[in-house]
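Why do we care about 3D structure at all? Because function follows from shape, and shape follows, mostly, from sequence. That is the central idea of this module. The next example makes it concrete: a single protein chain, its amino acid sequence, and then its structure expressed as tokens.
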Amino acid sequence: MEIKTFADLIDWTRQLHAHLARCLHESAALNKDERASALLDYISRHESLLAKAVAEYEKQADSKAMNTRLYDYGVHKPIENERTCDTHYNDLDFAGIAREIFDFHDQVMNLYDNLIGKAEIPEAKTLLEDLKSLEEHEAMRMASQIGRMQDV
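And the structure:
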């Protein structure tokens, strides 16, 4: 997907979370480690909910911000899509899965952070800050839950 506007960026982010959710769900059934499989299933559900939350931004965001073009921002496939869905999740252990997922979310937050610094209109900056805040909150929530799962 070519990202030309903030609307495209948000749609791409939503699709990325939804795609990751589907891939993790498939991997949960294939991973032989029971704890890793449970983690994949949990993160899959979490990513599905996150995709829905991002979709709400698509519906409610300021149209001025959504239609702002990003060609000056240098946004071209900012995150490695191939990392989000391949069979390597099938073979990862609990810690490896957690590492991969947090790395993925860090990349999304870093992208938003980079774009916040370049936003020229207040509506676009606010939109990006809200999206980054959503990602941060969800990453912290996931970290807390994963920590509890590790303790079990």
